[in-house]
Amino acid sequence: MKIFISYRRAEDNKSYIVGTIHEKLARVFGEKNIFRDTYDISGGADWRAVLGREINNCKVMLVIIGPDWANLTSPNGQKRLFDPNDVTRWEVETGLRLSREEKTTVIPVLVTGAGVPRQEELPDSLHPLLEKNVIHLRNFPDFDSDMEKLIRDIRSSQGFREDDITIEPFEPKTIYIAEGSFWMGSDAGEGIPISETPRHEVTLPAYRICKYPVTNTQYEYFVRQTRSGVSDAMRWKGQVPPKGQGQQPVLGVTLIQAIRYCEWLSQATKRRYALPNEAQWEKACQGAYEGMSFTGSFLEWTCSLWGKDRNKFDPTYGYPWKDDGRNDLRANFQIRRVMRGGTTGDEVNPSQCSARRGRSSDDPGTADIPHGFRVVLELE
Questions:
Q1: Which of 42, 273, 287, 359 is close enough to 265 for a disulfide, judged by CB 3.0 to 4.6 Å?
Q2: Do residues 296 and 345 lie in contact, with contact meaning Cβ atoms separated by under 8 Å?
Q3: 175: three-class secondary structure by DSSP
Q4: Per-residue pLDDT tens for 130-140?
């Protein structure tokens, strides 16, 4: 799933832009999936062999084009792109060849006000680059919105699967949930708690969410790495989960334990993990994306606020749902958080997806209905 970034180091006026592009793509697709030309080649390595391997293995090549990209010259006055041995020319030629074979998507990216090169500015071998749809990355304040478009184009490109990113062995598998709207909550009716009404439309940006709740094995790794304590409510044997239950959800977890796990996971992976807000949880539950598991007799933590009363929600945090500060993990821990799930059965049903409950931050649940959690991977 490698993304290869080709750029001219000689264009010093855009070197910071390339670094920012690299950083933002790494947050979304993972550091290991981004290769930045000679920047990622270790000392003493055969750089041409490394570049050849990385280009041949990449699914997307970004050709970063600044104002001087096509017109830079060698000391003898020859335009570099017209030198058959020029590295940038070779990179792009290779990417275009793989594109013709439908193995790689080549995306020209114009930065710092650059325009599309004219045909006469390029050797014949690079003319196919002019047939590619370009992305303009404008300066701030438009840079972030342009990057979002680039990320969307990468996700939809040939051979780049949205649901497949490289993860560490201890990292939970997440599923990509596309940006868009969904209907949240329930229509008012007999037996429907007022806290779940009215049914209303909510629009969310794209995010990734755990396919399954965090498991005992995943949580055990966190415990060992951080030397964290294990509560009696988790029913482990010391610091070890029960034999044969490594792939079962970790249960008996408090909000604070779940938050600390997310903080550690973010540091360990250099990605932005957090507890889902209740809208993210419900949208994923309704879609039941790619066999996601939302069944089981336990509740799952969200970061959304409920109120101070266990059995009566605070209308301040009622519907219609808004991203208005009710998802702030820095809020007073005396305010209960919304929990989701808790219905047994083999299939996801609407009542399970919309059900809301409030629990205090130090509550691990009961023996019958313990508390677990899943995480979201935040995207730009």
A1: 273
A2: no
A3: strand
A4: 999 999 999 88
The verdict on 280 and 189 lying in the same domain is yes
- Residue finishing a domain among 113, 128, 155: 155
Instruction: Domain count for the chain, please give it.
Output: 2
CATH number at residue 335: 3.90.1580.10
Q: CB neighbours (10 Å) of residue 42? A: 7
Please tell me whether residues 200 and 289 are part of one structural domain.
yes
User: Is residue 185 assigned to a domain?
Assistant: yes
| Share of the chain residues as helix, strand and coil, in percent rounded to the nearest 5 | 35, 20, 45
Q: Percentage of the chain surpassing pLDDT 70?
A: 89
Q: In this structure, what DSSP letter does residue 134 have?
A: P
Could you tell me if 85 and 184 lie in one domain?
no
Q: Using CA atoms, how far apart are residues 70 and 120, in angstroms rounded to an integer?
A: 10
Domain housing 70: 2-155
**Residue 108 exposure: Cα atoms within 13 Å on the Cβ side:** 22
Q: Give the alpha-carbon dihedral of 166, 22, 9, 82, to 10 degrees.
A: 60
At a CB cut-off of 8 Å and minimum separation 6, what does 366 contact?
none
Closest CA to 34 of 69, 66, 65, 6: 6
Helix residue ranges, H only, the chain: 15-29, 47-57, 87-100, 143-155, 216-226, 255-269, 278-287, 350-354
One domain for residues 135 and 178: no
The residue out of 155, 186, 218 marking a domain boundary is 155
Compute the residue count for the chain: 380
132 in the same domain as 214: no
Contact (CB, 8 A) for 304 and 322: no
Q: Kindly state whether residues 50 and 103 are assigned to the same domain.
A: yes
Q: What CATH number should be reported for the domain holding residue 81?
A: 3.40.50.10140
Instruction: Supply 319's token pair.
Output: 């519907």
Mean pLDDT of 293-306: 88
Residue 362 has pLDDT above 90, yes or no: yes
Cα–Cα dist 360/380, whole Å: 30
Do 66 and 187 fall within a single domain?
no
Whether residue 36 has pLDDT greater than 90: no
Is 2:59 a contact under the CB 8 Å cutoff? yes
Signed CA dihedral, 171, 174, 179, 181: sign only: negative
